[in-house]
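User: My collaborator sent over this chain with a note saying "see what the structure looks like." That's all I know about it. Can you take a look?
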Amino acid sequence: MKNIFRTFSTGVNGTPMPSFADNTTVEERWHIANFVNSLCERDAKGTPLEIDLLTDKPKVKFVILSGTVEGEIPDDPENELWQKRERRIVLLGGQITHKPRNFVNRIDDVWVKSLYSAKEKQIAFLFQWDDRTKSVAKEAGTKIPWQPTEVNVETHGVKEQAPKTGEEGSIAAGQNKFPVYNDAFAIQFPVKWQELPPPEKPRYLWGDEKYPVDIVKWEADGSLRAFAGTGWDKDFEDREDYTEKLKLAKAEWKDGRWSVIIKRPLKADYDEDVKFEVGKYIPTVFFAWDGHNGDAGRKMAVSAFYYLVLQPPIPKETYIYPTLIAVGIVILEGWILTRRVNRKKGKA
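Assistant: Without extra context I'll predict from the sequence alone. Here is the result:
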């Protein structure tokens, strides 16, 4: 707080940041400092998260922890179970390996929470990310000319921003002139992650033939589909049987932020379905598309590899034994004190 107040008061030498001491009062600068501090990302207890000075974002932890619940997983992100759940930031960058590349990425991070229920045999993910515009192709009058399984959409006119400088034909000049597609988000797991010889993984971009991947993709038109990926340039395989088992519990755009909750089975019926196991590190990749940025197909934001871990439930004995020990200690102390008192009375 003091550092924020001092920066507003004195400015920063050698930068365009001026001092605001002459045109604001001390009280106003403290109000500004309090407001800026309120924007700081915090954990469930309200403690500010540690910031990485190189990225100016909360420090990245590459393990996404999924917590256990005894009953049904709530559909409302404001539910106490979701609010208490630890969230992790996942950093995203524009996909620039294969055309069409995303040189101007508008989604650079997503917050992830996860819960699972052994009783309901479900695992759920809550994704939240900032997006200035709600993008739905149908509402914008854009007709999607490709099938949901197609990935080589550049044949349908999806173009990358030309990496040029200068005004004419530059990236900046081309912004906001793209057709509006659907905002979208996807999560990817290796199908046979148990068989991966460390540190080998599938290719981050939709797997490969040796190690196919399980992909679940949500789009802002309300669709939620399951696919199998076998390569960056190969169309997805539609898994309609598994799509029926997915549940879109929440998808809301409000105040410039998407909140999406997706539920899926912990274990499915077929070999091409991912089976989640408690206490194991499961390689995970995240993808995001901004419809107003003309994102579609490979023109998207993508993360590095993270790891999903289902935390084991805490045994009931963990709570029972300490309580019994505490009660036993109280009884023992009472017995000892009683004996001392009786001895003193006997001497008297």
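A starting point for your reply to your collaborator: The mean pLDDT is 89.
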